[in-house]
Amino acid sequence: MDNDLVLWIVVATALAFDFTNGFHDTANAVATSISTRAMSPRVAVTLAAILNFVGAFLSLAVAATIATGIVQADMVTLEIVFSGLIGAISWNLLTWYFGLPSSSSHALIGGVVGSAVAAVGVDAVIAEGLVGKVLIPAVVAPVLAFLVAGIAIGVSYRVVGKQRPGIVSRGYRYGQILSGGLLALAHGTNDAQKTMGIITLALIANGNLGPEADPPFWVIASAAAAIALGTYSGGWRIIKTTGTRIIKMDAAQGFSAQGAGAAVILSSTHFGFPLSTTHVINGGVMGSGAAKRLSAVRWGVAGNIFVAWLLTLPAAATIGGLTYGFTRIFGTGALGPVIVTLMALSLVAAAFTRRARRGAPVEAAGA
Amino acid sequence: MIATIVHTDELLQTIAASVVAGIGVTFAFSVGIWGAGQFAELNRAGRPAAATAALVVGGLALAGVAAAIVIGIIVMTSK
């Protein structure tokens, strides 16, 4: 009975994380489309939400990596998964509060690894999976997006350089509907699977599924719906940072950044690499800016984002570990997770209230 | 040992696919825009045959973009 209650708390928390992931990462898909005025904010966010939902059904390779490739599924308990999720959500909200596009994916992986280490020790972590599937792709992917976007924008300027600016700008704006859509699809494919993987891990830990099981359909559908709803709600603060503060971009740069981001994420998803979509698109944005003019990139803002990236895994791991320790004060039953959930909800409400009192973070609809 | 941890083969395939798709699609789309621009320009200059040729090249490039996206999604869903 207690375990079932904890399982439902974990499922609800995972879906809440998925919602915050969509909310937090909307910027990845739509910021450049909005900043170049290829689409209005509301249309861009709606399109991204729909394609996030569709993308979640495309593949299960990343879900398999999260469920069985990073921590030892047979050593994991529901409390570990729960604490990891709290670590990830806390870090996501903190970075959202300060408008930093950090990685929800790395927060999730860091949170679960931290709570697993706190509970079982380092033996719970599959080093090969963590290094090979997460850490190395985490370094390679944004650099790859940076280079691909940089080369792509160079190629496109060369091809259309002598055309009239009006037709070029209009053409790439239309193109951004396509590239933004692809990026949203890629985001749904990679990020929704992380929640599917976490819920599957919880179901394995609770004995509802076998150790190598795929996510059941209800898990796939609910994860898809949660990320799409989160995306539709929109994270306007982060849209502003990604869309205008890193570089002022033209439509061709937006197209190249989104195209590079979508290519990197979709091909990585195919091999089950749980990438940070945030890292990838920011790499693409910087690449398309730097290729035009190095000084076009606001390196100070880029530096802040870089620091947030570096901090994400250890910070989420620390919060996950501390949450596990706190939960265990109340024993192994449902009391610990219930208390932590209530505390987390209070903190979320406080953060939203405080943010709302400061006014709308960015000019939203119609801007 | 390192090769086992790094998943070299998958990583290299990811890099190759990203480079080909990311740069290739942007190039083809740019050719599409070039075709549309040339079509308008050459028509204004009274060269309809050359304008049509530019339009065909641009159209083929855009068809290539569409094909690349469809193939990409089919590959994604077929694993």
Topology:
The complex is a heterodimer of chains A (367) and B (79).
Chain A (H helix, E strand, L loop, with lengths): L1 H34 L5 H15 L5 H8 L9 H20 L6 H17 L6 H34 L4 H41 L11 H17 L2 H10 L5 H20 L6 H16 L6 H30 L6 H23 L10
Helix pairs in contact in A: 1-2, 1-4, 1-7, 1-8, 1-9, 1-11, 2-7, 2-8, 3-7, 4-5, 4-12, 4-13, 5-12, 6-10, 6-11, 7-8, 7-10, 10-11, 12-13
Chain B lengths: L1 H5 L1 H37 L3 H30 L2
The gist of it:
Helices cover 78% and strands 0% of the residues of chain A. Chain A is mainly α.
Structure in words:
- The complex is a heterodimer of chains A (367) and B (79).
- Chain A has 367 residues and is mostly helical.
- Chain A has 13 helices and no strands.
- Chain A has helices at 2-35, 41-55, 61-68, 78-97, 104-120, 127-160, 165-205, 217-233, 236-245, 251-270, 277-292, 299-328, 335-357.
- Chain A is elongated, with a radius of gyration of 20 Å.
- In chain B, helix 2 packs antiparallel against helix 3.
- Chain B is mainly alpha-helical and 79 residues long.
- Chain B has one domain.
- Helix content of chain B is 91%, strand content 0%.
- The A-B interface holds A 58-59, 61, 127-128, 131-133, 136-137, 140, 144-145, 148-149, 151-153, 155-156, 159-160, 163-164, 167-168, 171-172, 175, 178, 182, 185, 189, 252, 255-256, 259-260, 262-264, 266-271, 273 and B 4-7, 10-11, 13-15, 17-19, 21-23, 25-27, 29-34, 36-38, 40-41, 65, 69, 72-73, 75-77, 79.
Helix content range of the residues of chain A, please?
over 70%
Radius of gyration of chain A: 20 Å
- What portion of residues of chain A belong to β-strands? under 5%
What share of residues of chain B is helical? over 70%
Main sheet: strands, sense, barrel of chain B: none
User: Count of helices of chain B?
Assistant: 3
Shape of chain B: elongated
